[in-house]
Amino acid sequence: MKVHRRAFLGGLAGSLVLTSRALAATRTLPEFTFHIVTDTHIGRQDGNTPIKQWKAAAAEINAAPGAFVLHLGDVVDSGREAQYPIYMDVRKTINKPVHEIPGNHDPQDLFAKYIRPQIDISFEHGGVRFVLFNNSDRESHMGFIKPPQLEWLKSELAAAEKADQFVVLCCHVPVHTNTHPDRGWYVKPADGQTEFYALLEQHKGRVLGLFHGHFHNGIRGWDDHKPVIESLFPSCCYNQDRKLVNHPQLAGFVVDDLRVGYTNVTLGGGKMTLAYKPLGAESTARHETAIS
Ligand SMILES: [Fe+2]
Questions:
Q1: CA 199 – ligand 1 centroid, Å
Q2: I need a labelling partner for 74 at 20 to 30 A (CA). Which of 99, 108, 138, 200 fits?
Q3: Where are the alpha helices (DSSP H) in 94-226?
Q4: Contact 213/233 with Cβ under 8 angstroms?
């Protein structure tokens, strides 16, 4: 994938506006695919359906060509500790790396105990730095990006700049402001949204996307912070129809599918493709965004 980068700005004027973009060079990113699972809610209503669906997703993912799995939170339902080992038993069957973040249903201490001691992490694949951080709270549906996390995110973006990597940021609760007919759950300006978007602006052209779970409404997103795509992904447990498709006042994008499933994301060919994958059915609905 050819991605446009501004060339270095020479001279005094250039040095005064030396930004992340100004330092970047034009280069080619290899095409690759990965999978996004979210909101598995293992143990929901004390039933077996969520674990059966997680097993089905794991089997499909094993047979698919994606390089790794992102799980965007709400691993178990309502903090049920006994469900984490059950989740992990299926996870262990997946033949590629799996990287989770907690959701508001996942107590941090249990996430650390069963999934990964360090909550906020990053990893690199194909020239893209994937930065995963917890912005959820067990007591709220809203998101919170705390000052120490903002400092850490600054260091992660600086490291990406140094390594000339693109960046994808993953957290359970969307940062983007939204109201009815969306759920109205997001990071308020006073809870870190203002500083977070200012940070993105400093690294414009480097950050490709913000990926979230939490809404259980299929693929839903916004592109008004272009070129950053902010997207929510379908639950692997249940999705609810909030009549977003063809809603007259709705800004952003919606993919017309609400079946239980996951998403295959492909970066390449100058675009990002979000392909909805309903469990046991063909992938037909998708959203494509040019990356430039
Ligand atoms: Fe959820």
A1: 27
A2: 200
A3: 108-114, 147-163, 193-202
A4: yes
Residue (of 290, 271, 277) closest to 65 by Cα position: 277
Half-sphere exposure of 194 (CA within 13 A, CB side): 3
| CATH of 30-290 among 3.30.2130.30, 3.40.50.720, 3.60.21.10, 3.30.470.20 | 3.60.21.10
C-beta neighbour count of 138 within 10 angstroms: 13
What is the pTM for the complete model shown? 0.91
Centroid of ligand 1 to alpha carbon of 183 (angstroms) = 12
pLDDT of residue 13: 35
**SS3 track for 66-98:** CCCEEECCCCECCCCCCHHHHHHHHHCCCCCCE
CA of 235 to the centre of ligand 1 (A): 7
CA of 16 to the centre of ligand 1 (A): 45
Q: How far is the CA of 105 from the centre of ligand 1 (A)?
A: 7
Gap from CA of 143 to ligand 1 centroid (Å): 13
Q: How far is the CA of 200 from the centre of ligand 1 (A)?
A: 26
pLDDT band at 21 (very low <50, low <70, confident <90, very high): very low
Q: What percent of the chain has pLDDT over 90?
A: 84
